[in-house]
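Here is a complete protein record:
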Amino acid sequence: MSGDSLERYVITDHARIEMQRRGITEAEVAAVLSAPEQCEVVRPQRLVFQSRVEQGDPPRTYLIRVFVDVDRTPPEVVTVYRTSKIEKYWR
C-alpha cells in the first residue's frame, strides 16, 4: 500500500476537530490522499500520507501530513496537521 493513493476513507470525529482547529479543509486532505508525494509506515497498520503545499501571502511551503489507520475498511483518517518543518519529515 505504501506510496499508493487512497480514494475511499472516512474521517474520524477527532480528525475533523483537529482539521477545524488547524484550518485544514476536507479538500486539502482529499488532495493529499489522492496524490501523496510521500507515504510511509508510522507503525503497523498506520500510514502517514504527505504532500507539500503553497499557502499564505506571501506564499510559503508547508507539509500537510495525514495519518490513516489502514487496518479497517474503509481506512480511517485519525489526524491531520500542517507544518513548516518540511526537512524534519521529508524522506
